[in-house]
Specification:
The chain has 33 helices and 22 strands. It is an alpha+beta fold and 1021 residues long. Among the domains are: 185 residues, no CATH class; 237 residues, no CATH class; 200 residues, no CATH class. The chain has a 6-stranded mixed beta barrel. The chain has a 6-stranded mixed barrel with strand order 14-15-20-16-18-17, surrounded by 4 helices. Helix 2 packs antiparallel against helix 27, helix 3 runs antiparallel to helix 7 and helix 8 packs antiparallel against helix 19. The radius of gyration is 39 Å and the shape is elongated. The two termini are 44 Å apart. This is ABC3 transporter permease C-terminal domain-containing protein. GO terms for molecular function: transmembrane transporter activity. One of its GO terms (cellular component) is plasma membrane.
Length: 1021
Amino acid sequence: MATSTTQTQRQPSLTNRRPRASFATVATLARWRWRQSGSLLLLTGLGIMAAIVIMCTVPLLSTVTDTAGLRGTLNASPTNRELLIDTSIQGLSTQLIRDVHNQIDPLIQQRLHPYLSNQLQSTLQVPGMGILTPTPQHSGDQLQLFASTPRQLGEHISLVEGRLPNAQSNELELLLTSASAHDMRVKVGDAITLQLNYVVDPQTQSAQTTTINLRLVGIFNPSSPTDRFWNGDSFQPRKAGEWHYYDGLVSDNGLYATFDRVAQLTHGKGTITSSPLTLRWTYYLNPSSVSMNNLDEFSEQVSQMQTGIANKYGGLSPTATALSPYPYFRHVTLTGPLVDTSSNQGLLTQFRNRIAISNIPILILSLQIIALILIFVSMMSELLVDRQADAIATLRSRGASSRQVFGSLALQGILISVLALIAGALLALPLVNLLAHTLLPVTDQNALDQITSAPLQALSAEMPYALLAMLIAIVALLLTLNRATGMDVLSVRREAARTRRRPIWQRLYLDVVAALIALVGYFVSLYVTNIRNSGLLDIQTQTLVSSPLSLIAPVFLLIACMLLFLRVFPHLLTLGSRLASRSSGAATMLALAQMARSPRQALRMTMLLSLATAFAIFTLVFTATQSQRTHDLAEYQAGADFSGTLPAVSTISKTPLTPQNWQQRYSQLPGVLSASTGYVTKGATDGVSPTVTIQLEAVDPASFASTASWPAQSSTLALPELMRQLKSANQSGTVPAFVDAVVWNTLQLQPGSTFSVSIDNQSYKIRVLGMVEHIPTIVDNASDTANGQIQAQGGILTSYEAFNSAYQSAKQQEVDLPPNHAWLKTSNDEQMLLRFRTTLANSPLRLGTMVDRRAIFAAMENDPLYLNLIGVLVIGATTALLLAIIGSLLSSWISARARLTSFAVLRALGTSPAQVASVLTWEQAIIYLASLILGLAFGALLATTVVPSLTVTSIPPTAASTLDSTTFYALQSLLPTRLVFSSELLFALIVLILICIIALAMMIRVVSKPSMGQALRLNED
């Protein structure tokens, strides 16, 4: 018996044995629960998929648009694609040029072959050789030769007479400009003899002379005097002392053959010249081979090639007296717009700077979108658990272990997350394709080859973002499940009656943490601002560091306010229920009492709807503000509808023209409403410290007021009032003028103060009438620090009449200052604009360096980097709207379904359906009203504090090569941002109200549909 008792005691009790959570059991339980909650799981999966799609779409869209921007910059001008190898050699022959090429070309091809086009351009400049025949005006006159292939020469000149040089001719054939041919007294067909000095012995550098015979075969004009092909040569006769210098064009092969014959005299590989020759090879980049995926690699290859050339040829000296070994290099350098130098950044570095600026708002917006989606996913997880809370509790009460319940629900969540991962990653590609086709101009859509030509590579590039989104969603889901799987039937009933468990953010006091971070962020931003105002930070650091830091305080303040409200809201509901109990309205009392006992559902919906509302408001304000800023910057850069430098007076009139004469001529052009001319020049302050570089604009007040177009931020005074004060100011030996804020603050000026400026070696005394914040066309806040000193650039605005009087006094003669700048106001009619542009382009009145306000605005709005930002904003606004719709409808439906029993009990106690609907209406009205008020408040807070720091200034691709990095960074903060609250906000508010009404109507229908008996039977355990 004892043995039997002992054995019985050793046997474990069946009731105490923990069920094993085998995979088969978990899978079976998951399959059973799928039938009950499959639709809700699918909606949760859709939320996870949306997060994955957005996390994949944003970087892919950025890659496509950044690639389009990069290629647009490279295609804006052939110059932007150039890589120049400048060599100086002291010898020439066909073999020598071939050997030089064989040394240099492998250095280029080894690193850049995949990125280069087949186009290669070579030019050679031979220093001046003495002219023997025809007899020159002075015995020292010389002719310099510029050599290239006849085809390349023909692309850059226009023939006036004759033909292009023939490389196969027995004589070296020559082209001259009309002016050179006239001064040299030659015509087409004449022979020219030059004297060449060459070195006989490289060791002793003893020299001899020989003659070179040329035949003039044509007269030409350069297609563009500023063409980089000419290496700065104007081909106009030049005089230095008593000698005249001329420039001519020859065929490169013909020149090599001529020097080959001279080399035979010395029996060497080439003719060693007394002076070095300049040989340039121009390689052209293939824009389609460069993208954001290989930009870093390409930049690194260019940098290494630059370093390799410097290491190999850096020891050469152009001024060395000793002759270097064959092939007689003097120096070799890599230059071009793409290459960084000690003083300037190349286009690639500048483009990276643009991306760094544009990525700040994109990153902030993306994080906001993803955070909103993850909140939605977390809410869906809680709804999923709440929907199954009774079933989970019943399973736990009937013997299922927490591991089995947790495993089944986790398996469902993981499976739905994996499916969302696959679907989201695949859907991101067509979504990016759709957005790119919608946003980008047709000329930039070739950047889509980053996806279409290599979809697998695009998928692999987006996969880390997709996995991160999936993991975050799974973690949020598992944390929610872990809380629910430990509850039995009694716990569920208690939690449904009155919420006792505080959310984790309340237990961790995350609202206090967010408030502390906001406070620290505010002080850090204040400290950085003080440093910036003191001039200790350069403009690049100000833009890249100060702006992001200024976002810390408002963002975390918003989070702290949101969490604080969620902490206080239950207490407000409790207070409201107590006050309502004293009134005669039962519906209000029941609604507030129910919400006070179990506020979790109300808090959940309030948080989602308020954040969706705030983000929608923020997105709409940001979009309108960014568009307004683009318009303001285009207006600022032009200063009028059109502006530019005036043409030379000699092309218009034989006598000098006054500003009124110029204005009359421009006013006669079709489409011109008004015109104004004046004088624009640069100078610097004189006799004060620190020295400020200034740009002075002397305008005609009468016409400038009606012609110029200034942004509202430029001046607190209206432009007509500024012009009236300029016109009526007393000169009294000084130049009355307005100065911008940079000059005003740097020199610590006051109205009536005077200071001197030096312009063209003449000193002018300026009397200050007042300050304008900014003078359009002047980048007046391009300040920097160097060697501990502040370098600033500002502007001065004065009248042409006053400055002309000072000019005449300084010159001590009655010659008027020649106007050199024009501003035009034109009609907005498209046909008239087209006619005006065509007429001006073909008129002697065409403006030099013309700035077209409308063209700048269109180019800035079509900048791919700007369009990328617009795409993210579209995604954000759509996401906020969809989440508000789905979240509110679904949450309301589940809440109503879960409370059918409570409403049935109220019906059984004698409450009418209208009274039940009234209770529900009060509950939802409180939630929706609180959500809208919070959303409007938080949206306004975000808009006023964050939007000014996030707006970016794009630049047209055509201007990328003309703006230095300092000017680009200065443009980002040039004008204060004007917040724009568009009418679309009202439309968005109406849509949100309609969503709330629809959700409320659906809840009332759900509550009113089932009978009391059906509701009570459905609630049986």
